[in-house]
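Researcher: I'd like a candidate sequence for this fold, 322 residues long. If you have to choose between options at a position, lean toward the conservative one.
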């Protein structure tokens, strides 16, 4: 007789493999450990092959056959999640509330435009909006607090998430025009910035805890959010990288100046729409994703951005030519 494992058996198998032990799986699934062991034994009997090596170690270790079966189990359970999501989407009408997490890296003008149109299109749908840096957005979606996330910095791949690229952005090192680095009037080196205070955002997310991005100075001031960093940089208290779209007006009006610092990574990075696989967006949330995609897919690239700034800032044009 061909094996006919149940979905429950496959879920228990996957949980044991991912949690590392039968006891850990029992806690995750809120079942007695004896039930976990019995379920795995029945699955092995049906498949007529051992899935775990139990001798010589207190922790179960996947056999070669078990590793192959694990991939099949993941695929089958993922397909089940997709089916459940489709059923939920077919049965669900317009949401009572849309919970969205938006990264500070998303251009502010795009966020304002999308939310203004959302208000007009869905006047009876409540909105819960969270903003944050780096991994915070992913944690909000993963925890279920936010239905969808819009932003960059996907710092951890997760099969439970649907991640779609919908646009791009980039960071730019800047300082106040009175800052010593802005006064040098030439391309900057690492030696120039090492002893100058760099303002750095400390992300509250556990996904990026202890990680630094583009930190070049020996002296750092750490702040909790991008808005505070923006104000301190404008006040001349240090230099730092800020989302280009966030500071366009400051650059055009001369409140900030770009720093010609090749050591600072200004590569374009993608902006994503993120949601949980088993929690598909309703009509209003799905509209919001597409609205952000429409606006962010046409964001200016670095060349367009610099050209727009140079129209208002001849000094930047002169430095770029040197």
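Model: Candidate sequence:
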């Amino acid at each position: 007789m061909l094996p006919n494992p149940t979905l429950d058996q496959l879920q228990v198998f996957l949980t044991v493999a991912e949690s590392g032990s039968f006891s850990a799986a029992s806690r995750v699934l809120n079942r007695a450990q004896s039930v976990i062991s019995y379920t795995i034994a029945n699955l092995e009997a049906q498949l007529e092959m051992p899935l775990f090596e139990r001798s010589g170690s207190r922790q179960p270790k996947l056999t070669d056959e078990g590793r192959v079966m694990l991939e099949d189990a993941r695929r089958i359970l993922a397909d089940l999640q997709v089916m459940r999501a489709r059923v939920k989407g077919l049965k669900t009408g317009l949401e009572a509330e849309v919970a969205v997490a938006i990264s500070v890296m998303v251009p502010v003008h795009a966020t304002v435009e999308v939310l203004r149109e959302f208000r007009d299109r869905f006047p009876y749908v409540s909105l819960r909006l969270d903003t944050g840096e780096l991994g915070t957005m992913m944690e909000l979606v993963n925890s279920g607090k936010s239905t969808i996330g819009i932003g960059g910095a996907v710092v951890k791949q997760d099969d439970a998430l649907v991640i779609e690229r919908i646009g791009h952005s980039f960071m730019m090192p800047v300082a106040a025009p009175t800052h010593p680095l802005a006064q040098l009037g030439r391309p900057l080196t690492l030696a120039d910035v090492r002893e100058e205070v760099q303002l750095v955002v400390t992300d509250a997310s556990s996904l990026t805890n202890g990680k630094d991005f583009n930190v070049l100075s020996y002296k750092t001031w750490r702040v909790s959010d991008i808005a505070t960093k923006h104000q301190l940089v404008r006040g001349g208290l240090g230099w730092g990288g800020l989302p280009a779209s966030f500071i366009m007006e400051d650059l055009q009006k001369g409140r900030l100046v770009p720093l010609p610092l090749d050591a600072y990574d200004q590569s374009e990075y993608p902006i994503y729409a993120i949601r949980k696989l088993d929690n598909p967006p309703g009509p209003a949330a799905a509209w919001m994703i597409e609205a952000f995609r429409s606006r962010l897919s046409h964001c200016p690239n670095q060349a367009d951005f610099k050209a727009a700034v140079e129209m208002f800032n001849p000094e930047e044009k002169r430095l770029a030519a040197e």
